[in-house]
Amino acid sequence: MGPSRVAEPGFPRHMARYSFLRFREENISALPVDPIALAEARGIEVIAKSAEAKGVSGMLISIPGQNEFVIAYATHIDNEGFKRFSIAHELGHFILDGHCDHLLSHENIHYSRAGFMSGDKYEREADHFAAGLLMPEPLFSPAMERAGSGFQAIQTLKDQFVTSITATANIASTACTIRAIESSARRWKHTRMYNGCV
Questions:
Q1: DSSP helix, strand, coil percent of the chain (3-state; round to 5)
Q2: Long-range contacts: 72-79, Cβ < 8 Å, 24+?
Q3: Which is nearest to 130 in space by CA: 155, 163, 158?
Q4: Which residue among 27, 74, 135, 138 is least crowded, i.e. fewest CB within 10 A of its CB?
């Protein structure tokens, strides 16, 4: 069973955590996470689109009359992190509750465009699922601590997790925001306790 529909701002962390928990039985403990192997373990064929086929980052294809699926990923952008994210995104569509029913209800092919910019909840869910899968929180948080701060830290994390700059910066930013909120909440609680309010 997939995650319940939740609203922002807890949504990205919820979806990233869900993807980690969903694949915990795969014993993901080494980097980089291999989205192709995870897809193929579920009987999904993964193929590269022609570099001339531009416009979409990935596709989830349902083979008519069969219970078989194919993930096609873009090759017109020469970036390994982008390719891996596109595959993980389509895998999210395959796994997350309601995605296949919604996205493949009228056609056998769903087209995705990357970038964390879609207003569509299914695309946002798949983006955050992919980010959480490729940068699982139990591995990403300590790596972020070691990496430090600034653009060089993002570059270091990108290289370690083999992700795109965009996805890495997005997850690092979310993690920093969550840390700041948690730190403020602890300070607020401590202040209230100190003042005898709790």
A1: 55, 10, 35
A2: 72/46, 72/47, 72/48, 73/46, 73/47, 73/48, 73/49, 74/49, 75/48, 75/49, 75/50, 75/51, 76/49, 76/51, 76/52, 79/164
A3: 163
A4: 27
Residue 139 CA, distance from chain mean position: 14
Measured from the Cβ of residue 82, the count of other Cβ atoms closer than 10 Å reads: 23
> pTM here?
0.77
User: Quick one: angle between helices 80-95 and 121-134, nearest 10?
Assistant: 120
**Average pLDDT per run of 10 along the chain, which is 198 residues long?**
39 57 66 92 92 83 87 91 93 88 86 72 86 86 87 92 88 60 49 50
Within a 10 A sphere around the Cβ of 163, how many other Cβ atoms? Answer: 29
What pLDDT was estimated at residue 67? 79
pLDDT at 107: 86
Q: What residue ranges do the domains of the chain occupy?
A: 11-194
Neighbours of 126 (CB within 10 A): 29
Q: Is the dihedral of CA 149, 150, 153, 154 positive or negative?
A: positive
